[in-house]
Amino acid sequence: xxxxxxxxxxxxxxxxxxxxxxxxxxxxxxxxxxxxxxxxxxxxxxxxxxxxxxxxxxxxxxxxxxxxxxxxxxxxxxxxxxxxxxxxxxxxxxxxxxxxxxxxxxxxxxxxxxxxxxxxxxxxxxxxxxxxxxxxxxxxxxxxxxxxxxxxxxxxxxxxxxxxxxxxxxxxxxxxxxxxxxxxxxxxxxxxxxxxxxxxxxxxxxxxxxxxxxxxxxxxxxxxxxxxxxxxxxxxxxxxxxxx
Length: 244
Prior knowledge:
By secondary structure, this protein is mainly α. The protein has helices at 12-30, 40-83, 90-112, 119-134, 141-166, 171-196, 201-225. 73% of the residues lie in helices and 0% in strands. Helix 2 (40-83) packs antiparallel against helix 6 and helix 4 packs antiparallel against helix 5. The longest helix is centred in the first third of the chain and has 44 residues, at 40-83. The radius of gyration is 26 Å and the shape is rod-shaped.
């Protein structure tokens, strides 16, 4: 994996946290500020919500893969059911293929860009039933029942993916976490100077920089996994793999 891919984890918020950390170190060394304070409580205030948010975002990503697979497999099954119907003319089979392909493309397009209208996805899935009804004499009862059953899975997969895209993990925890990351970056330097001493101030700069970079990078990983569909994060789902 190219090292440049990891640059996606760096953003404006990374720069701000590192500026706060470096500025705090500079001010503490310049004015010889140090105090003895246990950062355990502050560390816990960051670790628990950050760990919980990352786990929740990871589970959402795994469920998204599950329901994307369900959505595609059910559409593919409906497609094959209609293609193997002997009584259905070739023109109608081609129409069904394009119709099902449009359903998949529009949902995946909406996941990548939720600003698009979602009404088209629902109306296009309804068109499958309109197609079955309008070609009732050329589609057997058994094929009709199979299509209805697998379209139920299509609706289920689409509904979960849409709700997942709209509703994120607990925003309060994420806001709480980022506030304490900034606070940690601000107060860390004087505590380290108390234990390390001003003679080795260069070491305090390095520790503060790396610890702040670690925390904000973990936060950025969680934030990117919040939306695994937008194709901008390091671990985003490759939506093209789920096209019909």
